[in-house]
Amino acid sequence: MFDALSDRFDGIFKRLRGRGRLSEADVDEVLREIRLALLEADVNFKVVRSLVGRIRERCVGAELHEALNPAQQVVDIVHQELIAILGGDTIRITFAPRPPTVVLLAGLQGSGKTTNAAKLARWFKQQGRNPLLVGADLQRPAAIEQLRTLGRQVDVPVVSKDLTSIGGEGGDPVEVARLGIDEARRLGRDVVIVDTAGRLSIDAELMDQVRRIAEVTEPHYTFLVVDAMTGQDAVTTAENFHATLALDGVILTKLDGDARGGAALSVKEVVGKPIAFASTGEKLGDFDLFHPDRLAGRILGMGDVLTLIDRAKEAFEEEEAEAAAAKLMEGQFTFEDFLEQMQQVKKMGPLGNLIGMIPGMPKELRNTEIDEGELGRVEAIIKSMTPQERRQPDLIDGSRRLRIADGSGTSTSEVNALLQQFREMQKMMKRFGGTMPTAKTNANVNAKAKAKAKAKKAKKGGRVTPKGGPVTAGAKTELKLPGLK
Amino acid sequence: MEAALIILVAVLVLVAVTAGFVVATRRRRGPELEPPLVDDGRRGRAGATTLEPPPVDVDEADVGVEEVAPPAPEPEVVAPPRPTFRERLAKARSTFSGYVGSILTRRSIDQETWEDLEEALIRADVGVGPATELLDSVRERVRSEGLTDGEQLVGAVKAEMKERLAVADRSLHHREGAANVWLFVGVNGVGKTTTIGKVAKREAEVGRSIVMAAGDTFRAAAAEQLGTWAERAGADLVRGAEGADPSSIIYDAIERAAARDADLVLADTAGRLHTKTNLMDELRKVKRVAGKPPGTVTETLLVLDATTGQNGLQQARQFTDAVEVTGVVLTKLDGSAKGGIVFAIQSDLGIPVKLVGLGETADDLVPFDPDEFVDALFSE
User: Which 3 state secondary structure label does DSSP give B127?
Assistant: First the structure.
């Protein structure tokens, strides 16, 4: 995995200690690292160049002189610049005074137009609208069937070539799009989403076709669908589509992978149109308005707490998690609870990815590749304990240790290591929990959990803005993990 | 939100304990105790192949794919008469804007020249790391060969790249007398289904009988899409219900192929992001099942979109870790993207590009030619 940007600076800033200000040469070195990080995140090189220029100005200026933690300050500057480019606000969709509001989707092959047409339809439905999907992709085999199936899933009607009299293969997508709008008027649908065939931005013929589709449908919103994994070429593509269609925004897809999504930043910078929506999963509900601050952190490899929370919400049973957390805070967390949590966490994806999302993770840890086999060993050790041992690990003496090691196919030193880690974690959490101002007398475990949750929220306010706002970068480094020092 | 925060703490704790455990045991056990190989040892060999320097002798080049081929494979180069990479690319050539034009006319090689060269490589998605490493070797060349102007420099870069890409077996393996399975894997939207359609047509043209397995049971209408291609290629199609187990569909296709003495099963799989463990596990199972007699998996092809950026390397790494990818199919190279990431994939992971997609029709899928590819990377 990539190092977080601040880690890259560590070496540079260590040498600075005691001097307290950056020389021209230091700044150059820092900027080189920033450049590298941005390029590795697929930010377009032209955008990187102008961005680095702006960052240089701010770094050389007075801002860093009084810096307590210059590395963090530089990261903050970069972060701010990224958010500035991405546009601070999410897009606001307004509706045409005379319905229907027409939305046109265009993009390269395989960027996710058809899937996102359905997701967008679902989103509009949730806004209380009555969308109609128009399948104008007559090129890819079975594209219309795909749209129809998705339409059924989100309960939105789909029209396509059935509006024309042409049978078999072929047909004119421009005509289909035009008739689609008429059909929407006839049916009284107030939003029309037009799905078009994927096309290369350098294919003059097909670009002309999509231009004609735009002419006959007069879209209120034209969105370019962009794959988050796209590299340097994203800008060329976006420029060409923008020149043909006058884009209103971008729909960023496949953000649920580990691509950093630098391409999106480039598109925003070059085309000047916001990223309107982001698609973050295979389910049709995994789609929402775009949050610039999340992507900025992601491009920098700074961790992505909000996405982590989103994933956690999916994977965990809320009640169970609350109960476990309550126990945790009181130091009553047992290996049994641990095992249970482990099953849940596994659902959230590879542990290595999760670690990458947690800000302020120690570097040595972030670089540790934890493979499933190792997780399995931990599991095996715990499962080789008797229920009583799991509840009271202190029972485990020399001979029990040997038995557990034999039972799990590990060594006693490994069993020891796990016990050690677990104990330290318990101690740590107890101390943490002890500082909570909530009453421990509440008999109801559930209520207690709730109370703890509130306390927790208050306590953690500095790290995660509760309302889903930006993660404050300054607070990130204070996350200390038990047993890792 | 409250619950989410609590969960976060739980996750943190879990991660901390596990990671601490891992770090502690690794430290204790020392370097010789690498994580144990969990599966049947195939991973070990794959790992070894990755670590080895690329073999230098072209004749020995099938080493890279040997672990997938059965004990006595008879690699057969499939080379029917068809448009070459060069011819096909020439059509799209005008679209390849040159990145190195200014370098070619330089009389001397200075710092700026090197920077422009690096930029050209980065713009082609080669990646900063591989580009830097490549240019270091080129610097060596420039010194030892006494190169002085821009044209020679570009020549040296091309030569270096071609040399690194040269050593690979790019043939599609097929074992006579067995139910060969070619498995197509990749992330969403790269063109797996379309590629299968085109490969089917190619293979049908050289007289192979083909069964297609509609293993993408997730995406709506994926089987219909494959069905259209099956009709075009005159291939059999085996499909199941939406949401059915892809392994069983592919196994059914293998059985049908065996029963009818068909030469080749082309197995489609649902697009999946390489970060989804459960889906990657599913893929492992697909491969395992496809390898059961009478089936034998002779190619596992990673389909990669030429517009993919640096994430492509991660994709290749994860997919090969799961199912031992034997080759890459680079699609959509007729666009403005140059697909430079495959350079990193071959040099880092030793996975060669075997086929390239240069257009919408079946004839536009052609064997990869590293020389043409490198030239196109720098073409005017």
Answer: coil
Do A232 and B123 make contact, defined as CB atoms within 8 angstroms? yes
CA distance A90 to chain B (A): 21
Same domain, B162 and B183: no
Q: What is the pLDDT of residues B41-93, one digit of tens each?
A: 333 333 333 333 333 343 433 333 333 333 443 444 444 445 566 665 554 44
Alpha carbon A176 to its chain centroid, in Å, reads 36
| Alpha-carbon distances, residue B8 vs A297, A324, A325, A327 (angstroms) | 18, 12, 9, 14
**Per-residue confidence of chain B (380 residues) as pLDDT tens digits?**
344 455 556 666 666 666 666 666 655 544 433 333 334 433 333 333 333 333 334 343 333 333 333 344 344 444 444 556 666 555 444 433 456 667 777 778 888 888 888 888 898 899 999 999 999 999 999 999 988 888 888 889 999 999 999 877 899 999 888 889 999 999 999 999 999 999 999 999 999 999 999 999 998 889 999 999 999 999 999 998 888 899 999 999 999 999 999 999 999 999 999 988 889 999 999 999 999 988 999 999 999 999 999 999 999 999 999 999 999 999 998 888 888 999 999 989 999 999 999 888 888 899 999 988 888 877 65
Q: Quickly tell me which residue has 């590990």 as its tokens.
A: A410
What topology does CATH give the domain A5-86?
Four Helix Bundle (Hemerythrin (Met), subunit A) (1.20.120)
Secondary structure element (H or E) that encloses residue B27, with its range: helix B2-29
Interface of A with B in 432-461 (CB under 8 A): 449-450, 452-454, 456-457, 460
Question: Is A414 in contact with B222 (Cβ distance < 8 A)?
Answer: no
Interior angle at CA B257, CA B269 and CA B210, nearest 5? 70
CATH code given to domain A317-453: 1.10.260.30
pTM over 0.80: no
- The CB-side HSE value for B106 (13 A sphere, CA atoms) comes to 23
Contact call for residues B214 and B239 (beta carbons, < 8 A): yes
Closest to A425 (Cβ–Cβ): which among B17, B125, B190?
B17
Cross-chain Cβ contact B119/A456 below 8 Å = no
The CA distance from A482 to A430, in Å, is 11
Domain around B24: 2-35
Closest CB to A345 among B14, B309, B340: B14
B127 and B263 in a common domain: no
A114, A116, A226, A232, best to mutate vs chain B, most B CBs in 10 Å: A232
Kind plus residue range of the DSSP H or E element containing B378: none
The CATH-assigned architecture of domain A101-302 is: 3-Layer(aba) Sandwich (3.40)
Nearest-neighbour CA in chain A from B216: distance (Å):
13
Residue B64, in any domain of the structure: no
Residues of A in contact with B340 (CB under 8 A): 231
* Structural domains of chain B, count: 3
Please indicate, yes or no, if residue B209 is contained in any of the structural domains.
yes
pLDDT in tens, A44-67: 988 999 989 988 888 776 555 555
